[in-house]
């Protein structure tokens, strides 16, 4: 067990202060849909993503001529052309571009963690690729579930549990903390049928009511990309191995 | 689904502010071991339990001549004769008596909730009896897991999930909130073998290191009593149906 790194799960940004520490990698997770959309955007050629917490910041960027995506209550905010649907970033028209994005939960979690040693973006979409990358870093890992308005949310915790499971299996990590054990168990209960498992979850009901079932299916499908979005300064870029 | 009451789970006292509302019953749960010990004490004839948060308050009561139980770090605090082992309250010598108790997590959670409409004490020990009682009250129920020093803890969440499962099965309650759904799933994964499920949990490891395995086994055995400890003013007493 010697020299193994620690993997922990923080179930909601409200509890981040309990897990914050030096020299750890924070994986920000907002399955429905911010971090899934970010993975999809990089997979489709976007060069840089600037996550901002408030609509005010988003508007300022828009006035400066940036392409800006803004979501609140699951919908595109009036005056913006993109929200947080992964499908919005797939046309190829944003290849090589910088996109500014603000969402209800995900971008807040990313900005909350920005003083961490390293912040990367996780989702089911880059599960295996990011797990392999994390194993190579030889650092403690904190999986930060974005939750829903600071409350616990099922799909983010399950995704965090999927990462815990991968990291533990590598035998390079230990997990001895209850919130991580719970996340792993929830993942193991869910993994054979995420859609059914999440049927009762509040977020899935919210998005289903908005006719976003296709988005949900896409976001719950593991390993559709190998991208490792990493925070450098105020922007996410693809990790270039430096 | 009309007229059904809501059951929710708060995973740790740090998040209680998100769940606090008027006119709900709060069930304080500290499986290892405060609320289990309280159930055991009432089952063995104790008349009244005064939960206090700090050792200072506990000492003041002791100076006034009260019987005082005090636990910190899993052990009886020096200068006190009782801790929070359920077995400490079973001799019959405290029949009809008042006991003051302070523990690391459980008594804090109880006192945090004391402005709630009603506060009752839950554990595996009174699972069925308390579930039936809750069903009869026709009020929303919040299961408050005491956690470990404000962090998520597995056994309390599983016990909360056991109550969620019972209440839902009565068809008198709905549960549409993710932390409650998670608690229920964790309970369903754990229920066939709590000891094995909790093997890796931090609290079980802590108590095992203190040779408290018998306490753990007792606290994880459902339905050993029908007591319903309820907070009246500053003290817990048995519910008399008023």
Outline the secondary-structure elements.
The structure is a homodimer of 242-residue chains.
Chain A: E1 5-10, E2 24-29, H1 34-43, E3 48-51, H2 55-63, E4 67-72, E5 75-76, E6 98-102, H3 106-112, E7 118-122, H4 127-137, E8 140-145, H5 154-169, E9 173-174, H6 178-190, H7 194-197, H8 202-209, H9 213-219, E10 229-232, E11 235-238
Parallel strand pairs in A: 1-8, 1-9, 2-7, 2-8, 3-6, 4-6
Antiparallel strand pairs in A: 4-5, 10-11
How do you describe this structure in short?
The first copy, chain A, is an alpha/beta fold and 242 residues long. Chain A has nine helices and eleven strands. In chain A, helix 4 (127-137) packs across helix 5 (154-169).
Task: Note down, in words, how this protein is organized.
The structure is a homodimer of 242-residue chains. Chain A has a five-stranded parallel beta sheet, with helices on both faces. A four-stranded mixed beta sheet of chain A has the order 3-6-4-5. In chain A, helix 4 crosses helix 5. The first copy, chain A, has a single domain (5-238), classed as putative 2-phosphosulfolactate phosphatase. The first copy, chain A, starts with a strand and ends with a strand. Chain A is globular. The first copy, chain A, has 242 residues and is an alpha/beta fold. The model of chain A has no long low-confidence stretch (mean pLDDT 94). Chain A is 35% helix and 21% strand. Chain A has helices spanning 34-43, 55-63, 106-112, 127-137, 154-169, 178-190, 194-197, 202-209, 213-219, and strands at 5-10, 24-29, 48-51, 67-72, 75-76, 98-102, 118-122, 140-145, 173-174, 229-232, 235-238. In chain A, a hairpin with a 2-residue loop joins strand 4 and strand 5. Chain A binds chain B through residues 11-12, 14-15, 18, 148, 150-154, 157, 175-179, 181-182, 185-186, 188-190, 197, 200-203, 205, and chain B through 11-12, 14-15, 18, 148, 150-154, 157, 175-179, 181-182, 185-186, 188-190, 197, 200-203, 205.
């Amino acid at each position: 067990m010697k020299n193994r790194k620690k993997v922990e799960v923080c179930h909601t940004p409200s509890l981040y202060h309990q897990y914050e520490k030096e020299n750890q990698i924070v994986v920000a997770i907002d399955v429905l849909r911010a971090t899934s959309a970010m993975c999809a955007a990089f997979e489709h050629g976007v060069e840089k993503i600037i996550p901002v917490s408030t609509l005010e910041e988003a508007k300022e960027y828009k006035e400066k001529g940036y392409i800006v995506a803004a979501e609140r209550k699951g919908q595109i905010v009036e005056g913006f052309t993109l929200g947080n649907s992964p499908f919005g970033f797939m046309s190829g028209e944003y290849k090589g571009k910088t996109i500014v994005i603000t969402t209800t939960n995900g971008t807040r979690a990313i900005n909350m963690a920005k003083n961490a040693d390293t912040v990367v973006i996780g989702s089911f979409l880059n599960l295996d690729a990011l797990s392999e990358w994390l194993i190579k870093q030889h650092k403690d890992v904190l999986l930060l579930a974005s939750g829903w308005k600071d409350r616990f949310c099922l799909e983010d915790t399950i995704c965090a549990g999927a990462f815990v499971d991968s990291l533990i299996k590598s035998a390079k990590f230990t997990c001895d903390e209850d919130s991580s054990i719970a996340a792993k168990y929830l993942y193991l209960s869910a993994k054979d049928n995420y859609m059914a498992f999440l049927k009762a979850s509040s977020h899935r009901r919210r998005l289903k009511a908005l006719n976003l079932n296709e988005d949900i299916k896409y976001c719950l499908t593991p390993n559709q990309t190998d991208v490792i979005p990493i925070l450098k300064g105020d922007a996410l870029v693809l990790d270039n191995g430096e």
